[in-house]
Design a protein that fits this description.
By secondary structure, the protein is an alpha+beta fold. It has 23 helices and eleven strands.
Amino acid sequence: MKPRVAWRMLQIQRVLVRHGLDDFVAATHLYRPLMLLLYLLPWNWFPRDRGQPRGVRLRLALEELGPIFVKFGQALSTRPDLLPADIAVELAKLQDQVPPFPGIEARAIIDRAYGRPLDEVFATFEENAFAAASIAQVHGATLRSGKDVVVKVLRPDMALVIGRDLEVLHALAALAQRYWTDARRLRPIEVVREYQKTILDELDLMREAANAAQLKRNFAGSTLLYVPEVYWDYCRANVMVMERIHGVPISDVQRLKSLKTNIARLAENGVEIFFTQVFRHNFFHADMHPGNIFVLAEDPESPKYAAVDFGIVGTLSPRDQYYLAENFLAFFDRDYRRVAKLHIDSGWVPAETRVDELESAVRTVCEPIFNKPLKDISFGQVLVRLFETARRFNMEIQPQLVLLQKTLLNIEGLGRQLYPELDLWKTAHPILREWMRERVSGRAIVERLRANLPELAEAAKTLPQLVQGLIQQAADGRFRLQVDSPGIEELKRTVRETNARRDAITVAGVLLLGGIVWLAIGHNPAWPGWVLVTTGTVWLLSVWRKD
């Protein structure tokens, strides 16, 4: 382990101890050999006043540890059903109430980014940030044209801070890969690699601006979701300028109710937005915690979502998209055998898994949660049960799906806060069914064919040369057909081993017989039977040589 990684791990433990989170240090087991010394320290002999409540101490520790830990707290904050209430309330403040860095630093960053003073770009600029998160903070401003905008500024030295903590995560993943019995199935190194790509993408605000523009195109004319306009002339790698929206934070349910917002419709629209992004557009906002979602409630009966912060987006391969959709539909239809078979066909579980056993296990976990509103379902408990099932069947984590799973948990957490009576299955089922019908329709097939037509035409151009080359090789006797099959290779290996054993036995038998003949001739050379024995030995040698 690199010295600076070991030092960072010590710093993490020191921060936890300083904030009175000794139990977390003990739970990590990183310093198990030193735990006796920890208990011998004088200040641990007597109960001590830790000052602030544990939720506050945990939030402050995560803030001090940096962006990766803040994001961990953000993810947890969307699951109040999994946390004690006092901790859930405090962690929710990490969504947009992280302490900002000084406004004068933000001004200096913007000046350097534009290569000229900020006052020449903006008519007004609010030096005090109105929202601050783990990676960047947001200031209000007005363009010279009079448009209200928000200016997002990356925190100073983010690349160095993120790089250091990524090294820590890689070190922990390597230790887990080496010593954790579940490492082969959970693939910690690959999961950390996927997370690294995600977090590094967030450090480029030009990429975030491009994500916002794509999402806006996808929902152009939609009554479900509004995406702010990007002002490209003012965007740089560490500064981004977007249209300012004035909506109600999704977490302010009381205010939404006071505006007589149709909460049920809003919750159903949220589910439709998620499935539309994942399956119809294959481009989804993957950081949908409450700090990033607002509601435009000018028409309370037809409320509209507005999204911000597009640093994390996700896509799926066509193969994963298909298997995921089929799994959802089979799950909604309670076709657990289909769920089990899809998991085997996709390679998510080993091919030798018995379908009936996996089917029974999935049924046991999923059946109790049907026909229940969100308020009566503990997805935390369901996930624990599914985790136990995965371990039993050696189901491997799919790193490419981790981002989607995180988003799904965020959506469920939002739905629980917004409208606990939501029937998730009833809302999602027809959306997926319609997408699957469209996918196999004649029009969709023609569209896919037309989209691939240039590649097919290019391949057709090279086909005559390819066929001519194969014919020439066959005519010259140079044509070889290589078949790569594990079964054939296994058969070849078995034959080789069998031949080797047979040869060894034959040689040993011939040598033994020859030795007996040689000794016997020396004992009684006049016996006429030696001719027959010698002839038999020569015959055995000739048979062995032919084989």
